[in-house]
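From the shared-data thread, chain only:
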Amino acid sequence: MPSGILRLDVRATIKTDDDELINTSYNGVIQCSKEQTDRLNNREELKTQDCYFVTAPTFETKSEKYGRLNGLQTVGKMISLKGGDHIRYDIFSPVCALWRW
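Structure, as tokens:
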């Protein structure tokens, strides 16, 4: 966006350690200062405190084991980002009265 704010539109498939597939999609917002954006473009690692970076993931799976994910709306925040290398999120889900984890 002209203001420097970025909007996310992500779709990915996760393969679990036990070979189950989980589709995820999320939107989100990233807002970093020019200095932080320059650091990211130079492939330096950014942390939570460096940028406002939140997401809203949902999940879909045919897996019985992970089927409870189909009914969740989650919120995520970036904890670590390094361009071309990795992104790590903390993902949170509100307590649901219908399920016990």
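The chain has a mean pLDDT of 90.
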